[in-house]
Structure formats: C-alpha cells, structure tokens
Specification:
This protein has 233 residues and is mostly helical. It has helices at 6-10, 27-39, 57-71, 82-98, 111-134, 152-164, 184-196, 218-222, 224-229; strands spanning 42-45, 48-53, 137-139, 142-144, 169-171, 178-180. The protein has a two-stranded antiparallel sheet. It has a two-stranded antiparallel sheet with strand order 3-4. The protein has a two-stranded antiparallel sheet with strand order 5-6. The longest helix is centred in the middle third of the chain and has 24 residues, at 111-134.
Length: 233
Amino acid sequence: MSIAHPAIAAARPPADGGARDPRPILPLWHQLVSTYSDRRPLVEVADVPGAFPDTLVGDVRRAAVRLSWALEHPRFDHARLGAARTAWRAAGDRIQRASRGLGWHHRYPENARFWLGDALDLALALGAVDARRRAIACVDGAPLPPCSYLDPRALWDDLRHWYMLRRPTERDPRSALLFPVCTRGDHAHVARLLDASGGASLVGAVEDGEPTAPVADGAAFWCPSIHTAAGDA
C-alpha cells in the first residue's frame, strides 16, 4: 500500500472535515510519489517532517525528467515562473553532482532534498499557476478573475491562456507567440481588465467596429511591443 508524503495528503479534503492545506500541487507530483511509494521503502528523517520514498538514482532521474517535461508544457511558457525555472536548473545540477559515479541501480544519496525540497517546490509552483487559472470565472462568456493581480503580466498570460482554451489560435511569426483569435469585444474586455491592474501597455489598441466582429490583426494586440518596434502600431 502506498503512503503519500504529508504534502500530498494535505492537498486532499481531510476525512474529519477539518482544515486542509490550501496549497495546490501539480497532479504529476501525486502520481510520482504514489508510484515510488509502492516500489521503494519509505524513509523518515528526524529533522525532516514526513516520509519519502527511498528511491534509486534511476528513479530520481526519471522523475526529474517527468517534472521537466511538465515545466516545459506550453501553458507555462509565459506564466512568470522565472524563479521556479532557475531553482529547477539548480536542482538538476545537484542531481548530477549527487549521482556522479553511481549507477542507476544505486540508492540516490539525497532523497530528502529531492522529494521534500526541489521536486515539491516545483510541483507547488506549477500547481499554483493551474489553480489560479481555474479560479477565473466565466461570466456572460467572458473571463472574470476572482481578485486583483499584483503582477499585470501574470494577468495578461492568464487571460491569453483562458481565451486559447476557447478560441482558435495563431502564432505570430515575429515574436513566435501563440495567441487566441478573438473578437473585438474580447479584446476590449481584456484591455479593461489589464488597465484596471496597471497593465494597459501590455496589449495594443482595440480595433473599432462591432464587438462580435473578428479582429484583423490579433498579433498587434497581444504582442504590441514587437509590432510597435517594427512600425506596425
């Protein structure tokens, strides 16, 4: 029987109806910990809360690859994850150093650091992005964030992602940005939300015309800095 790390169990509703850990965790984390808890012994360290699977070098390398693939998913391309990416690169370097000279069948010497530190931190960072986007309500066919954003660039990307799930998409050849093909009403709504959050400069001008009319140049709206530099704005 698998025994999940407390961070996993805390993400589920408690059986007694008590308080739960509000931090969202990437589902992949649940899968990895559950899989290796079934295959490997569980270890508890006196100074570290909770148990973790006592995995091998090959296990950790495979898990790290799976988490790296998750980080590189297109939905996280502009999700303001610079700090998480830097930390994960450092984690990759630590894995290389810790496993140097060891075969894949050898016990990994820094399991606590990997499972309860680096891997968990990344899973929390990615899970927070997904949870934030899931919290955006759909009101009369338009996105309505539940609260204000401290970083308007995060709001820009969350709105872009919201529409990409519901509209056709195109790729801007100049910036390589994937953007949703929206109506003029969609753009007006995005512009209002960003303006209220101090991010008006993150999008271009809204084209004149009927709100339901398709936009002629969506790239100029979603990535105005590229097109302004090229003399298109």
